[in-house]
Design brief:
CATH class of the domain at 18-53: Few Secondary Structures
CATH architecture of the domain at 18-53: Irregular
Order of helices and strands: HEEH
Structural class: mainly alpha
Number of helices: 2
Largest sheet: 2 strands, antiparallel
Bound molecules: zinc ion
Distance between the termini: 53 Å
């Protein structure tokens, strides 16, 4: 069996990373945003979402 350069989990994590800050925590994949909650709040206005008050 060949040794893989990347484990599937790592590759999957990389795919899920926030496209702004590259974190894996709290990344929202809904609506194809692919950004974390923190960046979501920052980008919410630009993306046309309203902040949750
Ligand atoms: Zn982020």
């Amino acid at each position: 069996m060949k040794r893989q350069t990347e484990r599937p989990m790592v590759a999957a994590k990389r795919k899920r990373a926030c496209r702004y800050c590259r974190t894996y925590r709290g990344v929202i994949r809904k609506y194809g945003l692919m950004i974390c909650r923190r960046c979501f709040v920052e980008q919410a206005g630009a993306l046309g979402f309203k902040k949750y008050e």
